Amino acid sequence: MVFEKDGFKADLTAYKVFIDGEEVNLSPKEYDLLFFLIRNKNIAVPREKIMTEVWGFNYYGDDRTLDTHMKLLRKSLGPYAQYIKTLRGLGYRFDG
Q1: Tens digit of pLDDT for each residue in 18-47?
Q2: Where are the domains of the chain?
Q3: Would you list the DSSP string of 40-74?
Q4: Deepest in the core among 21, 33, 47, 78, taking most CB within 10 A?
């Protein structure tokens, strides 16, 4: 599956992300997080569901881990970081 909009392209099968034609390297967790959000595009996804799906059922760490990874992911996406919306008190939504 390939998601493409404006200068943003994500190839979910090849695990590649391009920003304005340049490939960007993400951490494995950033890829997992981004691709999970893309697969659930335009759906409000609760924090708990993201933690369960991306980190797994047995993850007992701090839920601030999600915030930290989201911050790093947005930094990597540069001008396309606005595709990821924060839903206060709920979670996140990918609006690409």
Answers
A1: 999 999 999 999 999 999 999 999 999 999
A2: 25-94
A3: TTTS-EEHHHHIIIII-TT--S-THHHHHHHHHHH
A4: 33
